[in-house]
Amino acid sequence: MPARExxxxxxxxxxxxxxxxxGIRSGRLVPGQRLVxxxxxHSLSISRGPVREALKRxxxxxxxxxxxxxxxxxxSLSRKDVSDLLKVVEVVTGLVxxxxxQRMATGILRAEFEAAGTALMEHELLGDSPDFMERRxxxxxxxxxxxxxxxxxxxMPLMQIHLLRLxxxxxxxxxxxxxxxxxYRAMIEAVLSGNGRRAERITQIHIRRTRLSIxxxxxxxxxxxxxxxxx
Length: 231
Known about the structure:
Elements: H1 12-26, H2 37-44, H3 48-60, E1 64-67, E2 71-74, H4 79-104, H5 110-121, H6 130-147, H7 150-155, H8 158-168, H9 174-192, H10 196-215
Antiparallel strand pairs: 1-2
């Protein structure tokens, strides 16, 4: 029997990066939360050098903010950050939906998308929860995979989108939430019908409305640097 190939061991900075990303995905780490070097070195049994390298890497990716006064913290988005991010996401996710609809018309990942859509829609009357966030992430993951475009997958700012959801989802109104699920339902129907142009249009409307809904929120829900009223 051939020897099992050993998996390459992760570097210490990679371990720190994975721990922080895992904390953000699970909701244990939220936008604005401080990342204390001493706590990370203790919990991960890793020296300060790799921790600092990992924090610099995540800062370069727009996931962590480094400040001389505040140290490191999970990035919190300003109004301009939200506007800039969602203008890009509107275009990219629209294309994702169109390509996914075209491929699902041939049956590719159709069952997986139907299951993900059903699981997401079950939360329409349940309110916000970590499980809702996870089901929504799975819904988009299937859609992105179905688009079968490596470059789209590469440029999709998934962690920044997750940070946005963590920061703003609970501040949206009941009417915003109702519209969210109306749009999800229409997106699912368009994708499953194989209507790529309609899927693209509805997805872009969904992202655009989300951007406008967030833009109307009060200053205190945005990043510290945005709270002086700068728009």
